[in-house]
């Protein structure tokens, strides 16, 4: 008689990537006195046009959504120049990153990734039974492409870049991206996570799609509506693939109707509202620079950031500062990198949010 299988299976028990922070909400939503500067959300609401489209779509939620996300696909295709036959969608770009690992990794295969970075693709590698080969980021927080390329072996099947990198904020140069496009073997899927694409673009970041267009091997760029479009709660991400084969594989892995009707309508309207997007980008970048100046005066060292957050190395333990702020209902993300005191990743909020944070840090440091 067969022995019962121990659940979860060993491969799943071995996943080392933790889930995101759990923050309990009341029925009315986010508590007004809690300052959430640890999740890289926008404090701004979505575009008014997106909210109106979402409200209209709510009246038809008795119907399943368009699984092809046809209206949204058309807008993205026009913006990016990528044909509809190479665009896919996920319940956030994280779902796509897991799928990309699953379509490229067999048991025992390797994936080369920076560390620290966004963990979800690595989680997908472990789900698929692969091995994550981690390469430390450079001192400025950017992916070390040269060392990552040196870590590629005949067993490598996925090469992951995060640009801008989360949780550090730095971007890759065009020359680094060109090097990866040329030297990542054609047998390896090159993935570029551009969740913060709009911020990098606004500040002169390289054109990743233009660079990857010259690559012979397979590639995918992932993007999100969670950050610049202020729609983290809607869960909409999309993938731009090098070829229809990858697109087909992503669609085979997609759960049925994984992007809901309200989210599709809101994302389409949001992408068509350039004026609101630019206003959000301008505000966030300006407030990030103000926060950087204030923290520098308090003895922090700021890393270059092209995102909706700022990562700083504090003059004392990041864990101690984070815990002290949490007592005052101010949540920031502490991390051990780059050693020593560690670092704090701080989401950019409103001007009053920044003022409250600076007052709390200043008060703590004086004690």
UniProtKB/TrEMBL annotation:
Pathway: Amino-acid biosynthesis; L-histidine biosynthesis; L-histidine from 5-phospho-alpha-D-ribose 1-diphosphate: step 7/9. Keywords: Amino-acid biosynthesis, Aminotransferase, Histidine biosynthesis, Pyridoxal phosphate, Transferase. It is an enzyme of class 2 (transferase). One of its GO terms (molecular function) is pyridoxal phosphate binding. Residues 33-361 form the Aminotransferase class I/classII large domain. One of its GO terms (biological process) is L-histidine biosynthetic process. It holds the Pfam family Aminotran_1_2. Its EC number is 2.6.1.9. It catalyses: L-histidinol phosphate + 2-oxoglutarate = 3-(imidazol-4-yl)-2-oxopropyl phosphate + L-glutamate. Belongs to the class-II pyridoxal-phosphate-dependent aminotransferase family. Histidinol-phosphate aminotransferase subfamily. This is histidinol-phosphate transaminase. It comes from Parasedimentitalea huanghaiensis.
């Amino acid at each position: 008689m067969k022995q019962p299988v121990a659940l979860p299976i060993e491969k799943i028990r071995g996943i080392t990537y933790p889930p995101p922070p759990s923050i309990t909400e009341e029925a009315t939503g986010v508590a007004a006195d809690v300052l959430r500067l640890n999740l890289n959300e926008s404090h701004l609401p979505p575009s008014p046009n997106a909210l109106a489209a979402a409200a209209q779509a709510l009246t038809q939620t008795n119907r399943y959504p368009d699984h092809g996300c046809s209206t949204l696909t058309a807008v993205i295709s026009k913006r990016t120049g990528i044909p509809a036959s190479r665009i896919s969608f996920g319940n956030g770009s994280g779902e796509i990153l897991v799928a990309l690992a699953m379509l490229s990794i067999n048991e025992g295969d390797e994936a080369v990734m920076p560390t620290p970075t966004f963990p979800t693709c690595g989680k997908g590698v472990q789900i698929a039974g692969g091995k994550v080969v981690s390469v430390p980021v450079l001192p400025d927080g950017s992916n070390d492409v040269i060392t990552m390329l040196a870590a590629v072996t005949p067993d490598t099947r996925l090469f992951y870049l995060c640009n801008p990198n989360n949780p550090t904020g730095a971007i890759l140069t065009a020359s680094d991206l060109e090097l990866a496009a040329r030297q990542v073997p054609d047998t390896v899927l090159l993935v570029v996570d551009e969740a913060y694409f709009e911020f990098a673009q606004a500040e002169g970041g390289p054109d990743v799609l233009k660079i990857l267009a010259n690559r012979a091997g397979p590639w995918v760029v992932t993007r999100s509506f969670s950050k610049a479009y202020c729609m983290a709660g809607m869960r909409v991400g999309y993938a731009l693939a090098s070829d229809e084969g990858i697109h087909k594989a992503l669609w085979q892995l997609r759960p049925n109707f994984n992007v809901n009707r309200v989210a599709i309508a809101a994302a389409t309207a949001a992408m068509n509202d350039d004026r609101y997007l630019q206003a959000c980008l301008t505000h966030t970048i300006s407030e990030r620079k103000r926060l950087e100046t204030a923290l520098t005066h308090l003895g922090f060292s700021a890393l270059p950031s092209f995102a909706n957050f700022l990562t700083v190395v504090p003059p004392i333990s990041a864990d101690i500062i984070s815990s002290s702020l949490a007592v005052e209902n101010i949540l920031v993300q502490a991390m051990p990198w780059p050693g020593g005191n560690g670092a704090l990743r701080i989401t950019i909020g409103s001007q009053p949010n920044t003022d409250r944070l600076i007052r709390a840090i200043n008060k703590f440091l004086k004690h």
